[in-house]
Amino acid sequence: MTSYSEKATSTMFKAIVVEKDESGYRAGLKEVDESALPAGDVTVRVAYSTINYKDGLAITGKGPVVRKFPLHAGIDFAGTVEASDDARFKPGDKVVLNGWGVGESHSGGLAQKARVKADWLMPLPAGLTERQAMAIGTAGYTAMLCVLALQRHGLTPASGDILVTGANGGVGSVAITLLAQLGFRVAASTGRLQEADYLKSLGAADIIARDELSGPGKPLGKERWAGVVDSVGSHTLVNACAGTRYGGAVAACGLAQGMDFPATVAPFILRGITLYGVDSVVAPQAVRRAAWDRLAIDLDLDRLEAITHEIGLGEALQAGADILAGRIRGRVVVNVNR
Q: Which pTM value belongs to this model?
């Protein structure tokens, strides 16, 4: 097991380190040596990371996210290449990483340095700063994948309303912003009705109380929306499917309520709806680049800034707990050098 020293040297940097041993599971801000970085083709000086739901699970230990210990948390990062053994990247290049098991089985981006496989990296999209890329993060990138799935299905603003569940979260906030920018009428489902004005400022037309969707429902409900972006799962996803119009589509990308899907086949065989599973972790590079290219064009960056707040690396520990407790809305950018 790697030894984590508290003594700072010229090769030391700060990281949120997740550990598990006979003393239990814990995460903390530590000074670690560069020799603790895992094997990889490219070493990156990280500028920004972010806090996603999965990061909250990793930091708190409330979900079996981390599979190797000790490990630096953080499934996202943006920064500058320091050293590279791969011809695709050279020192000084700006890069972004989302997923690929980073922050789960490979040390990640809630650290001032990271070393990863070159295949996992993508050049920073033109038109975006490192901070903006992390304001988008995996949550925003996943939201774009969901929107693309609905558009590939053929849905347009003329098709009808789009439901967004988990509306105050990172995926939900960006999904609402994107859909509204594209001309869709959006219904936002949330457990925080006091945030209705915030959601309407993003572009939501209707606000639906979470309780309307989160309990056991009928196999089929009233046809209310043409499409859905769901980051919640469980009964919420079931009820979202049950309320989808004939021929509509549901893009499922999360499990905040649960991994279960206690549904019937009724919406699929009686209304011909389609359920798209959306994966952001190991999506091929071509899919990632398409999503990021669209984000750079379609996402209102001023609105993105309005839903983003910045914290320092040491504050990521509390933010991890807060995101699981539903105390965070929008996006959190982590300045790892602050």
A: 0.91
